Amino acid sequence: MKHWEAHPEYVEGCFGCKGLTLVLSTGDANSNKTMPTKKWDSELAAYKSAREQGIQPAGTSMKKVQEAIQASETLGRPYDAGKMPKPVHINKKSAEVMKELGV
């Protein structure tokens, strides 16, 4: 902070002024924000497999794909996240009602 005593306002070309404006972050190196390639590929492969079966999950994450597959098994037909209730709400009783309604 001694630098600001020399000149309190930003001076173009001053290395000290430029250094004081830098913001450091971990960026892409932050492992909490990035997904390993192996996990990414396995999730996309599971999503692709579900889509090939006619299932439309609510997302590409493994959890969403597995929920959609389980809902499809309960319904006895492919699940479609765009037209049907959330998979957590689908059980045998709700599947029967959906069949009666034609949903």
Protein model, in words:
This protein has five helices and no strands. The protein has helices at 2-6, 15-21, 37-52, 62-75, 92-101. The chain is an all-alpha fold and 103 residues long.
Tag the structure with descriptive keywords.
103 residues, mainly alpha, 5 helices, 50% helix, elongated
Short description:
By secondary structure, this protein is mainly alpha-helical. It is 50% helix and 0% strand. It is elongated and about 80 Å long.
What's the SSE blueprint?
Layout: H1 2-6, H2 15-21, H3 37-52, H4 62-75, H5 92-101
Helix pairs in contact: 3-4
Described by its quaternary structure, the protein is single chain
Proportion of strand residues: under 5%
Mean of residue pLDDT values: 83
Name the helicity range: 40-55%
- Shape from CA axes? elongated
Query: What order do the helices and strands follow?
Result: HHHHH
Number of alpha- plus pi-helical segments: 5
Described by strand count, sense and barrel closure, the largest sheet is: none
Strand tally: 0
Broad structural category: mainly alpha
Radius of gyration: 26 Å
Number of domains: 1
How far is the first residue's CA from the last residue's CA?
Answer: 67 Å
Low-pLDDT regions = none
